[in-house]
Design goal:
Elements: H1 10-16, H2 22-39, H3 64-86, H4 91-117
Helix pairs in contact: 3-4
Amino acid sequence: MRKIPDVLTRSEVESTAPYVSTPSKKLHQAVNNALDHYLNPPPPDMTTKLPPSALFVVAPDINNQTLLAYACESLASASVLANEFSGMLEGTHRNTMLALQQVIMLGELAVNRVLDNMEPSHTLPAT
């Protein structure tokens, strides 16, 4: 059985030193790039605007008053749904749902105030 020497010679240390050979340097760079990609991603670019989804599009010719009226109706419906759902829950889950319902209601009140402050441009379509 061969005995493993306790101390390596200088030439052995230099030949096994990391990042000395060209393939080792390339591997080191690739590892650093991969780590930077996953662990240090660049900050998001806030200057570019993301295109809207083509799945749901609001007609561009709808005025703000009509959009706010529909938003108000949607928030009112969500408020009722959250309130009814909270009736089926108990304990902290019920409290959480009631808090969500209250946030929805506050959004509805804000939209209603904006509608009240706007000058009516035309009559809203019946729903």
